[in-house]
Specification:
Layout: E1 7-12, H1 17-26, E2 38-42, H2 53-65, E3 69-73, E4 76-79, E5 82-85, H3 91-100, E6 118-123, H4 128-138, E7 141-145, E8 147-154, E9 157-165
Antiparallel strand pairs: 1-2, 1-8, 2-6, 3-7, 4-5, 5-6, 8-9
Length: about 170
């Protein structure tokens, strides 16, 4: 559960907001309120009190080297109580981010030492039928990531602390 003062490094995926809204309508409480569809690269990230120009400078430089990523989500993944999408195209960026901050353990180790970057579809869903319904409506999906978003949680509300556009030219 998010705590006040925590931050996250994510990439918004507005093309999948309607999907999350439909999941929430069918399964109230299954999605995270207050934050749009997004791929999570590192959570928790640095505490709000530790953010400075060195952090934002590194994120700006990283994003400048990164071309927009067009992802094709072809498989729904299911862990106990958790339904998500991932893509192998996220791994290089995830690895670079996590290598820069090796002291930050994603999800405080709850999902192992190196969980994949992912887009959460539903959390806390235990019913097999509900999971099957979510999986059936989720695919196929294509989305483009074009910037990183540094989000901060303050009193149980997420807010933008910085947006870092991907500026590199895509390679063929």
């Amino acid at each position: 559960m998010p705590q006040s003062g925590w931050t996250a490094l994510v990439a918004p995926v507005p093309a999948l907001d309607p999907l999350l809204a439909a999941i929430e309508a069918a399964h109230p409480g299954a999605t995270r309120a207050g934050i749009p569809a997004h791929v999570t690269f590192l959570y928790p990230f640095l505490p709000l009190a530790e953010l400075d120009s060195g952090v934002t400078g590194w994120l700006t430089a990283l994003a400048a080297r990164q071309a927009p990523l067009t992802l094709e989500f072809a498989q729904v993944r299911v862990e106990p109580g958790f339904v998500y999408l991932d893509s192998p195209l996220l791994k290089p960026l995830t690895d670079e981010i996590r290598a820069h901050w090796p002291q930050l353990i994603p999800y405080l180790g709850r999902f192992g030492a190196d969980p994949v970057a992912h887009l959460s579809l539903a959390i806390g869903v235990a019913e097999t039928q509900a999971i099957a319904e979510i999986a059936a409506t989720a695919l196929p999906r294509t989305a483009t990531l074009d910037h990183l978003w540094l989000a901060g949680n303050d009193n149980d509300e997420w807010r933008s602390l910085g947006r870092f556009p991907f500026a590199a030219t895509p390679t063929a």
